[in-house]
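User: Hi! I have a protein structure encoded as tokens and I'd like to know what sequence might fold into it. I'm fairly new to this, so please keep things simple.
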């Protein structure tokens, strides 16, 4: 059984890892203020379109990892799946409100992708693939996020999606968090469901 120390540790690890502003760090030499460029969102999509594709991809990968690593650490500690879940979403919270960037963060989609892929590999892969196809077709991260979210929920509910080590995470526990990500994305400045950002 987890102690309060375990819970606090997982929350802090997730939050501080999520707070690392990779978009800002990777674009420091450009002198570009992401808050005043493009969508005003300090994330991978804005970097991809307004700086360059190579840096945008690097930011995306880094943000995915900062969502996945806290979940992996929690699993390695041998704690229950509830703490895997908590540590991952603490990372997303850190991305939204990063202590290292005066609590001004991005929308958290890439970080959320890392969490989802770690918690629900099968559903996550299906959702990310569906979102990528939509993004390539309509050039809208808003529509891609919406389609990806729907596919993750549906596929996880229909397929008994398992963690590679064999532990299961019920889809019913993940749906509210995924919906919260979409809501946060929709209310983050510079993004609307139909905007091509």
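Assistant: Happy to help. Inverse folding works backwards from shape to sequence: for each of the 197 positions I chose a residue that suits the local structure. Here it is:
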């Amino acid at each position: 059984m987890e102690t309060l120390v375990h819970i606090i540790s997982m929350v802090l690890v997730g939050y501080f890892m999520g707070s690392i502003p990779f978009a800002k760090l990777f674009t420091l030499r450009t002198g570009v203020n992401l808050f005043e460029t493009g969508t005003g969102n300090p994330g991978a999509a804005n970097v991809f379109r307004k700086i360059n594709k190579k840096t945008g991809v690097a930011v995306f990968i880094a943000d995915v990892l900062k969502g996945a690593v806290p979940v992996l650490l929690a699993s390695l500690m041998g704690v229950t799946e509830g703490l895997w879940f908590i540590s991952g979403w603490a990372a997303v919270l850190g991305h939204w409100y990063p202590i290292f960037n005066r609590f001004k963060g991005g929308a958290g989609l890439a970080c959320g992708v890392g969490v989802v892929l770690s918690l629900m590999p099968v559903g996550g892969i299906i959702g990310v693939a569906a979102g990528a196809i939509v993004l390539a077709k309509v050039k809208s991260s808003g529509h891609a996020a919406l389609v990806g979210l729907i596919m993750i929920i549906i596929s996880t509910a229909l397929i008994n999606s398992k963690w590679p080590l064999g532990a299961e995470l019920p889809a019913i526990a993940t749906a509210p968090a995924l919906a919260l990500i979409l809501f946060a994305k929709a209310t983050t400045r510079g993004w609307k469901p139909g905007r091509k950002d």
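A useful reference point when you look it over: Residues 161-167, 189-197 have pLDDT under 50 and may be disordered. Feel free to ask if any position seems puzzling.
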